[in-house]
Design a protein that fits this description.
2 domains; globular; 4-stranded parallel sheet; Alpha-Beta Plaits; 12% strand; 11 helices; 3-stranded mixed sheet; 45% helix; alpha/beta; Rossmann fold; 293 residues
């Protein structure tokens, strides 16, 4: 079934990545995903541009064609470069896309940034996405959560469950590693993309979030990405967001601490509005702000 939905160009891409042929288990689960999508007939995919949602959008488009759409949130906590990447990907592939303008700060409880912030945000966001999909004649809205997401602290998943939003990648048992395998075989540019999360996840729980702080984090991370760093986070601490704690992989800590890069990074982040700039010696780890919970 895998080959029945793969185009000629994508088969060529797979042959170029022959050394990374997906495992039989990954292919079996992908076939189950195709069946899942065919049974729904019409699907709207919440598309952020990350590894999981890009893979899901690709397979859904192969299976359903114009009976699927990608729905992307253009909110304050979504980096602008990520939104542009989704637009470019959909345009290149001929995938219908609806971009939902979204202001998270208008959601009660979001700015206060309590540990259940993601719950309130997801519920409001997916309500808007579902409305946008309905206007396109599609009532089945799905997200890109995978099997591995079940083990982390994710209050947003509770919101999706309450709303009846399906997560087909998780339902068919696809793990992040398998999604990367399949994405690489399909030649998707996201196959080795580092994990990502919304900008609101950079703030310590209980510290108020506002538009200025979100933009400051986005600009800081854009600057570090432009230096060639792929996997990173700029975590923010302090009631005024005065402390920036930079997380990079352990093998990049030394180079970032050396001159003249150390001084350049510190100077640039202070120009953005941070009073203190620190380098986390533990190194990057996903969900670091949940360590206090």
């Amino acid at each position: 079934m895998w080959h029945t939905v793969v185009s000629h160009d994508e088969r060529m891409a797979m042959s170029e990545h022959a050394s990374s042929t997906p495992t039989p288990e990954a292919l079996e689960r992908c076939a189950a995903l195709e069946t899942w999508l065919k049974e729904r007939g019409k699907v709207a995919v919440a598309y952020s541009g990350g590894v999981d949602s890009t893979f899901l959008v690709t397979i859904a488009h192969q299976v359903l064609g114009n009976d699927m759409i990608a729905v992307t949130s253009a909110g304050r906590s979504a980096p602008a470069r990520d939104i542009e990447r989704t637009r470019a990907f959909c345009a290149e592939r001929g995938i219908r896309q609806v971009v939902v303008e979204y202001d998270e700060l208008a959601i009660p409880g979001f700015a206060q940034n309590e540990p259940d912030r993601c719950y309130h945000c997801k519920k409001a966001l997916f309500a808007q996405m579902a409305e946008a999909a309905s206007k396109q004649g599609i009532t089945c809205l799905v997200d890109g959560s995978n099997k591995d997401d079940e083990g982390d602290y994710r209050p947003g998943m509770r919101a999706l469950a309450e709303m009846g939003i399906s997560s087909p990648l998780r339902e068919v048992g696809l793990t992040k590693a398998q999604i990367r395998e399949l994405s690489r075989a399909l030649g998707l540019p996201t196959w080795d993309m580092p994990s990502a999360a919304c900008l609101a996840s950079r703030f310590a729980y209980g510290d108020v979030i506002d538009a200025i702080k979100l933009k400051r984090v986005e600009q800081a991370e854009d600057y570090l990405h432009d230096l060639g760093l792929r996997q990173l986070r700029v975590r923010v601490h302090g009631t005024d967001g005065e402390l920036a704690r930079i997380e990079v992989p352990a093998d990049r800590i030394t180079s970032l601490a050396e001159e003249p890069l150390r001084t350049s990074v510190a100077s640039h982040l202070r120009e953005l509005g941070f009073t203190y700039v620190s380098l986390d010696l533990v190194g990057f780890r996903s969900g670091a702000m949940n360590e206090r919970l």
